[in-house]
Amino acid sequence: MEELNLFEYAQKQLDTCAEILDLDxxxxxxxxxxxxxxxxxxxxxxxxxxxxxxxGFRVQYNDARGPTKGGIRFHPEENVNTVRALSAxxxxxxxxxNLPLGGAKGGVICNPKEMSERELETLCRGxxxxxxxxxxxxxxxxxxxxxxxxxxMAWMMDEYSKTVGSHKFGVITGKPLSVGGSAGRGDAxxxxxxxxxxxxxxxxxxxxxxxxxxxxxxxxxxxxxxxLAVSMFGSKxxxxxxxxxxxxxxxxxxTEAVSEHKAKTGSVIDFPGSxxxxxxxxxxxxxxxxxPAALENVITEKNAAKIKAKxxxxxxxxxxxxxADDILHNNGVxxxxxxxxxxxxxxVSYFEMVQNFYMYYWEEEEVHKRLDKKMTPAYHSVLxxxxxxxxxxxxxxxVVAIERVVESMSDRGWV
Length: 415
Ligand code: NAD
Hints:
This protein is of the alpha/beta class. Among the domains are: 36-169, 3-Layer(aba) Sandwich (Rossmann fold), CATH 3.40.50; 188-341, 3-Layer(aba) Sandwich (Rossmann fold). 45% of the residues lie in helices and 17% in strands. The strands form 2 sheets. The protein has a 7-stranded mixed sheet with strand order 9-8-7-6-10-11-12, sandwiched between helices. A 5-stranded mixed sheet has the order 1-2-4-3-5, with helices on both faces. Helix 1 (6-21) crosses helix 13 (393-411), helix 3 (80-96) crosses helix 13 (393-411) and helix 11 packs across helix 12 (364-389). The two termini are 40 Å apart. Nicotinamide-adenine-dinucleotide is lined by residues 189, 216-222, 241-243, 279, 293-295, 315-317, 342, 345.
């Protein structure tokens, strides 16, 4: 089977928006390709005495709006086209949130689950050293992503600092608090999503104090989302699933107790006082807010017409297949698209950069306040654009983001 080229898919999305915006062909051509990419080979002396060479990439897609930003993925199936697509999406995401940043992404082909801590540290340091000529606090700022952790960010920051000969905490984000991490990073993705849900509920006239939620996935994004739905709004979370199955209680689940149950047993299933629900059925529940927070492609043309939720808040990346979008839009389901809904993480990463530049650190409440000031206008700019052009929320988000990058390119005299 031919491998799906994610980058061609990202280019297609851009082409659709170029048509809506009637983009100049030269501008469109610049936006269709990354401005820079670095391919590196990283030798690592393994614990068994052999030397292995790992392939790595850093792709900087567009820096018209400022230094580029984007995570580093460690994955056995990493490939440069995936990294290119993700770097384009980071460009649009940072622009959508109106952050003064461009977009980038990095990756290393490796299986971190099969490597020792010492091997991983050597790999991280090797990566940081080899990309040091193109990254930096005012050039390009990486962050954690799939299978990379705050500890790895700390090693990379340390290696970069040693390479350039001064403390450069701001070269990377997602660091532990002891070396320049930001308060409020833990639940930032879910909290940002909740802010967009709050605004969507106002638009649709839904009283969140009486609203019901269903949350698919109970990891970092999903578990915080479930807790915050209760603590921020007083809503009822009636269903939760994870990879092993799900639980339902029409009167609402005690989300903190579910977390404790999962910590003890490894899953949410068999939570006392609940009935089982499958990962398919949770999507079709009659709830006010459905939060996919696990996998991609769970809402497709097969089940889109059966969705009864009024709001779908996409905390996961790519939970809705392209064919399903129009069905949902035509049925009046309000979709908060992934790169808006889950942008709280990158927004607090940006705050981490700001604090590193300042050398002064904010209290958690300050981070929450500033996150709201970024997420709320981002949501409304997408909503207004969707109404102006009569397009679905996802296409509207691309239009807002791309329009801003074009404006910066034009003001800089690039086009
Ligand atoms: P995670 O690994 O912490 O949690 C994933 C959850 O999904 C787990 O509860 C797991 O049991 C569940 N899951 C796995 N397979 C499943 C299946 N077949 N059916 C139902 N549930 C299943 O991951 P995360 O960090 O919470 O990320 C979840 C999604 O949110 C991903 O799409 C990720 O890209 C996106 N996201 C996360 C962040 C963040 O800051 N954590 C930021 C942006 C986007």
